[in-house]
């Protein structure tokens, strides 16, 4: 598929538009300011008609602050609540389930009574935090995704296709996604599989109490053995890498240990005192244990399997994989659909004792990410994170129609993209002579400044979508996070002449006159500087941004070669260090700061996205990275909110001043969800602590009886035995 195919509102190939763009000296405070007022045309008209923009940059190499982004009147407002108003753990006098479950499974002896399938004290969602109150059973939520499942072995690094599948299957020690609605001063991860925790007096030990009596979807008990298998045999084992890339041992603190106390108690021991920040690391995607009673027999430590055999032991065709999540995979048709049915042993209820989830079935149509937006807006799918700006205008127009089946609500500018340079000159990824030379260049600050100054970010943003959506983003923390400080953000404005001067300072000149600078004599044969840039080929936005970077770097004198891979292969190349540069959509440490904070800097051998240890497990840190490490370490252990804010100001200044990453653009996302669904929290962002599929708390979404559609493919059926084909009806 072409970069712009399927997007009729796009203005044509990005590279052509950038080459044809006139170059005008600009003043920084005017960049991004709108000239058109919205008048009384309404939000939609203001957003879709576009705005006239004078994007004027500062001269030459003068560092400044980024221009203030344009006002965005369509941004939804969050209704803030107290943390303890969301949920609690307690026993209720009675419990209920869908009538058909009682009739077809309990009455026939196929299942125990619902009270015997629940923990002693299940998780109870409080009615007061439900926007539309206690719900009714029935209906389906239809998703569309562009990913494809590798298998069900999450802990061994297999993707289930993204788009919320793994979020619906997995449960983690803590949960953070719903925290978007909690005031910052009250923010701490919500309990989940760990129902409570206690710190020792000296703050070096953390005792966690697990949900007692909870069960996997096949009825097997969940307990501390599952936690310890995940820790010992997946996180600690160097041959296994859990999905998400953040579950390395040092992500929980260098020297941290975990041990089992009893079946429902585990104890962490930390080198630091009171490192409460790691409670966030214990949420999705870093500490979501799998069913050890299924996984352990396949692990090489306990069998004759190789690690590859362990990883691939549960392919997509393996149905009814035991989960702790609300739905279980029961049907998989390659390049067609994944169907998930309600988990009869799910351990969460509402205040009336109704076992959740309310929705009986989830669908994941296997298509493309762009198609997800189209189908959600059209009503043939139910939910989408509108994150590709090429789709904004058409989606807004359709959502504004009275007959529109879906509602669309924008959040803050938390979707951003960075160009990340591989800083590892220590052998990570086994680079050849050219690749090693590029890494040495990446570590040269003059070179990094040349690259960031050569980017016309206003042109890049406008090429994606016209209007007040995109904003100038130099890199570092997202402007939508509460920790962002504009005055602590160093911005090197677009200046091609100044960029070429910086390139010359880095020792690069065009010695053969072909327009591309050469390596110095004696380095990589003095050949043209050719940089391989890794991207995800499943997203139109990623490909469009890459095309723009190629065009603008060519004017600087750098030859960029795109290595476009699908999601899993791209992740494999990334985690193995096989890249010079990569374009990456921002992850939660930049949008929330408190989630996966360790990924803000190379504080351990494998915490940074672009600087990891070589075979000797040692990092070759640059001086500014040592400063970032010190800041992150202090932030992790500081109990003082004011001090943490000040630390992040320091982090932002050092990170952007030294060009730790090269920001490309940032913009808001919008949650698209069918109007028939109830209990959608007000102002839900599509991405902050996690994606919206988690933030909306899908297990408590419901559809009124008179609005329910006939979408269930397996009505009145439940998951079968692990490995059996499909669900069962009695």
Automatic annotation (TrEMBL):
SUPFAM superfamilies attached to this UniProt entry: Periplasmic binding protein-like II
All copies of domain Solute-binding protein family, residue ranges: 189-589
Any one Pfam family match given in the protein's UniProt record, by short name: SBP_bac_5
The organism's place on the tree of life at top rank: Bacteria
InterPro entries given in the database record: SBP_5, SBP_5_dom
Chief localisation class: periplasm
MF (Gene Ontology): peptide transmembrane transporter activity
Subcellular location: Periplasm
Residue ranges, annotated region (Disordered): 1-31
Keywords tagged on the record: Signal, Transport
Gene Ontology biological-process entries: peptide transport
PANTHER family: OLIGOPEPTIDE-BINDING PROTEIN APPA, PERIPLASMIC BINDING COMPONENT OF ABC TRANSPORTER
Family designation: Belongs to the bacterial solute-binding protein 5 family.
Protein name: ABC-type dipeptide transport system, periplasmic component
């Amino acid at each position: 598929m072409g970069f712009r195919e399927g997007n009729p509102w796009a203005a044509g190939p990005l590279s052509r538009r950038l080459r044809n763009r006139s170059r005008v000296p600009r003043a920084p405070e005017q960049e991004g300011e709108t000239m058109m007022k919205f008048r009384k045309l309404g939000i939609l008209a203001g957003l879709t008609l576009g705005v006239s923009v004078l994007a004027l940059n500062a001269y030459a190499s003068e560092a400044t602050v980024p221009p203030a982004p344009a006002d965005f009147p369509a941004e939804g407002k969050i209704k803030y609540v107290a943390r303890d108003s969301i949920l609690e753990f307690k026993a209720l006098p009675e419990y209920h389930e869908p009538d058909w479950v009682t009739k077809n499974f309990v009455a026939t002896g196929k299942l125990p009574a619902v009270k015997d399938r629940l923990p002693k004290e299940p998780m109870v969602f409080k009615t007061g935090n439900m926007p539309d109150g206690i719900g009714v059973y029935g209906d389906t939520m239809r998703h569309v995704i562009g990913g494809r499942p590798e298998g069900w072995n999450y802990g061994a690094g297999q993707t289930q296709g993204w788009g919320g599948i793994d979020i619906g299957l997995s449960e983690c020690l803590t949960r953070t996604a719903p925290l978007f609605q909690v005031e910052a001063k009250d923010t701490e991860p919500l309990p989940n599989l760990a129902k409570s925790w206690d710190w020792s007096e000296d703050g070096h030990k953390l005792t966690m109490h697990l949900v007692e009596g909870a069960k996997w979807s096949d009825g097997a008990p969940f307990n501390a053995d599952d936690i310890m298998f995940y820790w010992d045999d997946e996180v600690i084992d160097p041959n296994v890498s859990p999905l998400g890339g953040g579950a390395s041992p040092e992500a929980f603190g260098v020297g941290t240990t975990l041990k089992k106390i009893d079946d429902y108690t585990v104890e962490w021991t930390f080198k630091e005192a009171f490192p409460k920040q790691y409670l966030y690391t214990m949420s999705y995607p870093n500490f979501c244990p799998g069913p050890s009673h299924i996984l352990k027999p396949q692990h090489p430590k306990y069998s004759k399997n190789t690690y590859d055999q362990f990883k691939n032991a549960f392919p997509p065709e393996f149905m009814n994989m035991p989960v702790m999540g609300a739905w279980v995979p029961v049907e998989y048709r390659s390049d067609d659909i994944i169907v998930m049915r309600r988990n009869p042993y799910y351990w969460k209820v509402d205040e009336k004792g109704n076992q959740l989830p309310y929705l009986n079935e989830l669908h994941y149509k296997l298509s493309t990410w762009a198609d997800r937006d189209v189908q959600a807006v059209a009503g043939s799918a139910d939910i989408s994170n509108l994150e590709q700006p090429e789709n904004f205008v058409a989606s807004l127009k359709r959502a504004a129609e009275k007959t529109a089946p879906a509602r669309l609500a924008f959040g803050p500018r938390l979707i951003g993209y960075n160009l990340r340079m591989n800083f590892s000159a220590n052998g990570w990824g086994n680079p050849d002579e050219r690749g090693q030379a590029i890494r040495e260049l990446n570590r040269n600050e003059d070179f990094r400044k040349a690259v960031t100054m050569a980017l016309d970010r206003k042109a890049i943003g406008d090429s994606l979508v016209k209007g007040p959506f995109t904003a100038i983003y130099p890199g570092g923390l997202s402007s939508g996070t509460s920790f962002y400080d504009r005055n602590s953000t160093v911005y090197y404005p677009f200046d091609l002449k100044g960029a070429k001067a910086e390139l010359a300072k880095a020792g690069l000149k065009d010695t053969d006159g072909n327009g591309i600078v050469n390596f110095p004599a004696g380095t990589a044969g003095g050949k043209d500087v050719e940089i391989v840039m890794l991207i995800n080929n499943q997203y139109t936005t990623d490909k469009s941004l890459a095309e723009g970077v190629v065009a603008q770097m060519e004017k600087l004198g750098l030859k960029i070669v795109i290595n476009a891979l699908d999601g899993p292969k791209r992740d494999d190349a990334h985690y193995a260090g096989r890249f010079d540069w990569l374009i990456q959509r921002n992850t939660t440490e930049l949008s929330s700061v408190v989630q996966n904070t360790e990924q803000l800097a190379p504080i351990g051998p494998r915490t940074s996205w672009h600087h990891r240890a070589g075979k000797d497990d040692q990092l070759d840190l640059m001086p500014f990275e040592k400063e970032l490490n010190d800041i992150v370490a202090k932030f992790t252990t500081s109990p003082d909110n004011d001090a943490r804010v000040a630390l992040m100001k320091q982090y932002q200044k050092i990170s952007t001043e030294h060009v730790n990453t090269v920001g490309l653009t940032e913009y808001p996302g919008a949650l698209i969800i069918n109007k028939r669904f109830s209990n959608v929290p007000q102002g839900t962002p599509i991405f902050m602590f996690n994606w919206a599929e988690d933030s909306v708390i899908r297990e408590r979404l419901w559809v009124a009886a008179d609005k329910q559609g006939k979408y269930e493919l397996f009505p009145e059926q439940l998951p079968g035995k692990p490995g059996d084909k499909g669900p069962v009806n009695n």
